[in-house]
C-alpha cells in the first residue's frame, strides 16, 4: 500500500471509473499535480526542503501533499510542503508522518 501511495504521488496516471457497460462514471478530481504558479509560490514560501535540519534547495525538492491526494488532500498551498527527494521517500516508504506545528508549518 505504501508503494502504491508513493507511486500515486509522483505519477501522471488519471483514475477513470467505468460502469459495467464501459460508460465513464467518474474521472476523479481535476488537479493532483501542482501548477506552475502554485509551485513558484511554494518555492518562495518554503525556500528549501522543510524537513527539520535539511537545507536542500527548492530546485532539488518535490511538492508533497501533507494530506495525501488519494486521501482527498487538496492541491493548494495550505496542503503542500517542499521535501527533497530523500525526505519525500522517507515519508512514503520509511513510515514517517508529517504533522503541522502551531505556526502552520
Question: What is this structure, in a nutshell?
Answer:
With 105 residues, this protein is an alpha+beta fold.
What can you tell me about this protein's structure?
With 105 residues, this protein is of the alpha+beta class. The chain has one domain (2-93). The protein is built from three helices and four strands. The protein has a two-stranded antiparallel sheet. Strands 3-4 form a two-stranded antiparallel sheet. A hairpin with a 5-residue loop joins strand 1 and strand 2 (24-26). The longest helix is centred in the middle third of the chain and has 11 residues, at 36-46. It is globular. The two termini are 27 Å apart.
Order of helices and strands: HEEHEEH
SS-based structural class?
A: alpha+beta
Separation, N- and C-terminal Cα atoms: 27 Å
- Give the neighbour order of strands across the main sheet: 1-2
Biggest beta sheet summary: 2 strands, antiparallel
Average the pLDDT over all residues and give the rounded result. 81
Tell me the number of helical segments per DSSP (H or I, 4 or more residues long): 3
Task: Assign a percent range to the helix content.
Answer: 25-40%
The count of strands amounts to 4
Rg on CA atoms, Å: 15 Å
Number of domains: 1
Strand portion, in percent? Answer: 5-15%
Spans of at least 5 consecutive residues with low confidence:
none
Q: What form results from the Cα inertia axes?
A: globular
Amino acid at each position: 500500500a505504501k508503494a502504491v501511495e508513493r507511486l500515486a504521488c509522483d505519477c501522471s496516471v488519471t483514475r477513470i471509473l467505468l460502469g459495467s457497460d464501459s460508460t465513464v462514471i467518474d474521472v476523479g478530481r481535476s488537479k493532483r499535480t501542482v501548477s506552475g504558479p502554485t509551485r513558484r509560490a511554494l518555492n518562495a514560501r518554503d525556500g528549501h526542503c522543510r524537513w527539520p535540519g535539511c537545507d536542500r534547495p527548492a530546485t532539488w525538492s518535490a511538492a508533497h501533499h501533507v494530506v495525501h491526494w488519494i486521501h482527498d488532500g487538496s492541491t493548494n498551498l495550505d496542503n503542500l510542503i517542499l521535501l527533497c527527494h530523500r525526505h519525500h521517500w522517507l515519508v512514503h516508504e520509511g513510515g514517517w508522518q508529517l504533522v503541522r506545528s502551531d505556526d502552520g508549518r
